Amino acid sequence: MARRFKPLSAELTRTLPPGCAGCVFWESPEPLPLVCGAKCDPAFADGWVQRVRSEWGDCGRAVVEDGETLGFIKYAPPGFLPQARIMRAGPPDDRDVLIACMHISPEARCKGLGKVLMQAALRDLVQRGEKGVQVYATTRQDEFETSPVMGMAFLARMGFTVSKPDPLMPLMRLDLRSLVAWTDNLEAVLESLRIPLPIPRRTPVTNFKKGSS
Question: Are 43 and 36 in contact, with CB atoms under 8 Å apart?
Answer without folding.
Answer: no
